[in-house]
Amino acid sequence: MPHTHNIYNASWTEEKTSRGDTWKYLDLSGEHLGVRIEELKPGDTSSIHHFHTAEEEHILILEGSATLHLGSESISLRPGDHFWFAAGEEDAHHIENTSEEPLQFLVFGERNPNDIVVYPEHQVMLTKGLHFRRFTYRDIETEENQ
């Protein structure tokens, strides 16, 4: 049986992130493919700078303009721009709404239950597998002394 949604009369979820940003999204995901329409207020960011080891991820800008932070680069985004991030590429990314207007974009990609998400600026990894999620915090000083 197909699962249908009409995005124009669906209820959006709105949450505060740990960074204090507002995260508004409409989740259209299935079992194996994650699909969300996200909206960012001016000045907010999509996520913490990260990359996936086992999930491919795509973004498509629908409305507004923003800046994609990819590795150490900053790339201007406008409606119609599409970027994809290959699994295992170590160029961390996040989107920042640097404009004065709301930004809407589509995020879609795999829902790999065995992914590792790396947050290099925070020295943190999220490991997903066997129906659990675990954060690992890296102590650089301890590792360098071993």
Number of helices: 1
Q: What letter string, H or E per element, gives the SSE order?
A: EEEEEEEEEEEEEH
In the CATH scheme, the class of the domain at 13-112 would be Mainly Beta
Counting DSSP E segments of at least 2 residues, the number of strands comes to: 13
Helix residue percentage: under 10%
Radius of gyration in whole Å, from Cα? 16 Å
Q: Taking strands numbered 1, 2, ... along the chain, how are they ordered across the largest sheet?
A: 1-2-3-10-5-8
Unreliable spans are: 140-146
CATH superfamily placement of the domain at 13-112: Jelly Rolls
**Helix-strand makeup class:** mainly beta
| CATH structural fold name of the domain at 13-112 | Jelly Rolls
Oligomerization state of this entry?
single chain
